[in-house]
Amino acid sequence: MKSTARGTLAVLAGCLAAAGAAPAAAGEQVPVAVPLTGVENALHVKAPELSTGVPIPVPGGPDAPRFVAGRMLPEPLLPAFPLSSELPDTRVEAPLSQVTGDHKIDHLGLTTAGSDVRTATPGASVNPPLTGPIGDRFGLPGVALPEAGLVTPLLTTAPGAALDIA
Asked: 3-state class of 82 per DSSP?
């Protein structure tokens, strides 16, 4: 094998390894730097400090439709699609001594702790006015009342915050 072919294979193997390692190294949130230096220059006061992140939703697998006895269509016809993520820790600290003129109050701080978030899209269940095949009737379907229903969306989290003035 020529050295150029070996080099090409080595580069290809490296790219595949890097592509496979990238999703595993990714976190559930992306840190965000909020530039507030323009506030300091425009108002001639110390700008607040803000540290937070942007959550990255992680898709889950929807429940597979399953066949139920006596129904013509699978249940649910449109399954709910779950997503999960984590709300990031957020910290905002604003100096107040220059704004209020009172040097007893130094800063105002707001802190939120990270919390897990689980969501699911709405789903749908539909059944036509026919049942599944009936063995006593030579496989012909029976007549039934039509049914339609929606599965409600889901949002579950437990956020919390703490406010401090010092």
From this structure: strand
Instruction: Render pLDDT for 59-111 as a digit per residue (tens, 0 to 9).
Output: 888 888 888 877 788 888 888 899 998 888 888 888 876 655 666 777 889 99
Half-sphere exposure of 122 (CA within 13 A, CB side): 6
Residue written as tokens 């999703």? 23
Distance CA 121, CA 22 (A): 28
- Within 10 angstroms of residue 71's Cβ, the number of other Cβ atoms is 19
Q: Which of 49, 50, 6, 58 is nearest to 29 (CA)?
A: 58
Token pair in block for residue 45 = 């006061």
**Prediction pTM value:** 0.55
The residue type of 50 is L
